[in-house]
Inverse folding.
RNA sequence: GGUUCCGUAGCUCAGCUGGAUAGAGCAACUGCCUUCUAAGCAGUAGGCCACAGGUUCGAAUCCUGUCGGAAUCACCA
């Protein structure tokens, strides 16, 4: 309809305005709720060229459209806005089309370019937490939204299974895990702990010893004991200590942190961990075996968590495989002059002309940095999937700079797909008390949280659900649907880019802008449809009211919303749309009677309208990774 | 300090490719279950859209500056 109006105006610009106009000047928008009309044309742009008042200009265009487009039944000009009323027949037709369209709102699968969506990508040294939940739900949902837009999607993650962090857990386990009567150290099997939890426990254990040792070293330094310390370190300590004089509290804290880092680097436990990393890189059999075993524990633990989350992956990348990649690309970049080499042998790129800094891409000892392997991995992925057009990286916004640099480097290296790489940058999740801090034990564990929300859903459902006759399995499935749905929706309804506050109490809320509210509406409709038991084929209501029209309009927007959510990589767009739809439906539901309606044509129309609302709810929620029940 | 992002009701968030009187939910208060699921609906109250300029017929939205908050600027990952 918008397009029709636009083209009519553009075609007849000559006679209407005595001049041609650009498409941009034809601004159509939805009419405000509180005035009569469905579509509104902004007429300010035409006032000057028509040499008359906004009122007259509006009337002239209104008369023209009324004559040209039969579906337009009336118009009104208010304050420079031409409000067009579109006849009910048109909206009924729209509903018919929606009802007849299979997979309404979705673009034909695999009809558009292949996109890889990377998300999750955890370290294997500790369990997943609240921040990972936002990441996973977001990545999964964006993948589904891109599929709905017709793209072929490859869901992936890169598992950070190597590096000093995993050596820390391994070392701590080796040193500090108690040995039981059968001579074994702690394992998931003999402790009953989830593998990721067990490994995480030893990461914390390492940190504890690490800090204790560092503190002892600082105490020694403060007492003037610098045995076995290089003069550089000693001088640095003295320099930093002196620098504290006269500084404010914040600056002193910053310096203290630097001193702590200095001391940490001198600890024997870190040295041991570093030695272990060297052995790992040399594929020392013993270290490698331990690494394989402990990583497997983590993978097994993660698998349980992912299953509960309802997310999955099509292809996995492991950093232990990819960390060697990228060096050949550095070589190529050196030859083509994109990179330059310093005297010490380190390789850099100068991005100052692009408003960024100089960035290291290869260490002086020839080993890779993060950037090196990210370049290599990207290229690898395009080799692995020859139809791949782009990659979406779901990674927190603390890495904004990293990705800006990465994409720019890839572009400079001449990879044409670099412009199709997108950093889906999302904000951190804060608690009501502020940031999550592992040191202060305020990190919200993913497993615990999911268990908690399901438990709450259980209590609420027992209290007010319609669950007579449900088996235990059905009840459990329902509560999981409600609890996890609520959690997902809570994390997805906020614009991904924005930092958000996570209030545990609000995340299990059932009223207002929540998944249970939406799920509830779906269940209500299903109940209606089950009771109606009539053939729903003919749509020919004697008349329709405003609340019905508003619902059709909202349904009509669904394809546009999916496109918008895809373009913006934003599940929040889908969430907010669904909430609007459900609110409109509930208003309608509460204001008319459906099953007891005596006018059969009207009754049938309302049932079909309801059915399509339920279908759109279900599709929309599916794009968020949320299931909807038939009763609750 | 440089760069980037953010600042909308008491709280959590929409609205941001400029358009009419800035919207929801939560919390507070009023009503509505002899009728299809009250996890619902209707209503009341709550705002110098951080601040100051500028562009425009028109600014929460665009530009500049100020203030406040966050992230980042490693031969860490």
């Amino acid at each position: 309809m918008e397009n029709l109006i636009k083209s009519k105006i553009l075609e007849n610009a000559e006679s209407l305005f005595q001049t041609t106009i650009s498409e941009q000047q034809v601004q159509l928008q939805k009419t405000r709720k509180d005035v009569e009309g469905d579509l509104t044309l902004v007429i300010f742009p035409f006032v000057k060229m028509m040499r008359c008042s906004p009122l007259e200009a509006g009337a002239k265009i209104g008369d023209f459209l009324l004559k040209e487009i039969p579906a337009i039944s009336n118009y009104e000009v208010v304050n420079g806005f031409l409000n067009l009323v579109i006849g009910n027949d048109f909206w009924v037709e729209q509903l018919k089309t929606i009802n007849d369209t299979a997979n309404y709102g979705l673009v034909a699968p695999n009809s558009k370019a292949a996109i890889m969506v990377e998300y999750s990508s955890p370290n294997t040294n500790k369990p997943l937490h609240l921040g990972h939940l936002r990441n996973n739900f977001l990545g999964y949902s964006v993948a589904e939204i891109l599929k709905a837009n017709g793209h072929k999607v490859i869901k992936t993650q890169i598992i950070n299974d190597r590096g000093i962090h995993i050596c820390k857990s391994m070392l701590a386990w080796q040193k500090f895990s108690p040995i039981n009567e059968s001579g074994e150290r702690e394992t998931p099997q003999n402790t009953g702990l989830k593998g990721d939890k067990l490994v995480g426990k030893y990461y914390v254990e390492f940190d504890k010893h690490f800090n204790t040792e560092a503190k002892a070293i600082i105490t020694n330094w403060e007492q003037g004991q610098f045995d076995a310390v290089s003069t550089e370190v000693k001088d640095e300590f003295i320099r930093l200590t002196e620098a504290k004089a006269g500084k404010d509290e914040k600056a002193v804290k910053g310096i203290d942190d630097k001193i702590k880092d200095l001391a940490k680097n001198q600890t024997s436990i870190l040295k041991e961990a570093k030695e272990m990393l060297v052995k790992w890189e040399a594929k020392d059999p013993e270290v490698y075996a331990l690494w394989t075993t402990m990583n497997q524990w983590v993978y097994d633990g993660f698998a349980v968590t992912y299953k509960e989350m309802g997310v999955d992956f099509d292809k996995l990348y492991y950093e232990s495989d990819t960390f060697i990649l990228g060096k050949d690309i550095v070589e190529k970049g050196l030859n083509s002059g994109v990179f330059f080499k310093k005297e010490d042998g380190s390789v850099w790129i100068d991005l100052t002309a692009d408003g960024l800094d100089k960035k290291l891409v290869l260490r002086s000892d020839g080993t890779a940095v993060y950037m090196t392997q990210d370049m290599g991995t990207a290229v690898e992925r395009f080799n692995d999937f020859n139809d791949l057009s782009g990659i979406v990286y779901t990674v927190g916004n603390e890495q904004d700079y990293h990705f800006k640099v990465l994409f720019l480097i890839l572009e400079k290296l001449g990879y044409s797909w670099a412009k199709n790489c997108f950093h889906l940058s999302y904000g951190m999740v804060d608690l009501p008390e502020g940031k999550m801090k592992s040191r202060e034990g305020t990190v919200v564990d993913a497993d615990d949280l999911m268990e908690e929300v399901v438990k709450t859903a259980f209590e609420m459902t027992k209290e007010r659900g319609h669950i007579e006759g449900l088996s235990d399995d059905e009840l459990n499935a329902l509560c999981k649907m409600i609890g996890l749905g609520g959690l997902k929706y809570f994390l997805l309804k906020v614009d991904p880019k924005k930092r958000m506050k996570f209030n545990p109490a609000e995340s299990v809320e059932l009223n207002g802008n929540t998944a249970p509210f939406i799920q509830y509406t779906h269940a209500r409709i299903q109940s209606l449809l089950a009771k109606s038991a009539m053939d729903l084929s003919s749509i020919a209501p004697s008349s329709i009211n405003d609340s019905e029209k508003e619902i059709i309009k909202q349904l009509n927007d669904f394809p546009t919303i999916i496109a918008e959510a895809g373009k913006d990589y934003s599940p929040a767009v889908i969430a907010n749309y669904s909430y609007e739809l459900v609110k409109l439906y509930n208003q309608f539901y509460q204001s008319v009677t459906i099953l007891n309606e005596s006018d059969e044509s009207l009754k049938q129309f309302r049932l079909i309208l309801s059915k399509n609302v339920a279908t759109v709810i279900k599709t929309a929620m599916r794009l968020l990774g949320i299931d909807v029940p038939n009763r609750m």
In short: The radius of gyration of chain A is 31 Å. Residues 195-222 of chain A form the longest helix (28 residues). The domain at 159-228+266-429 of chain A is CATH 3.40.50.620 (Rossmann fold).
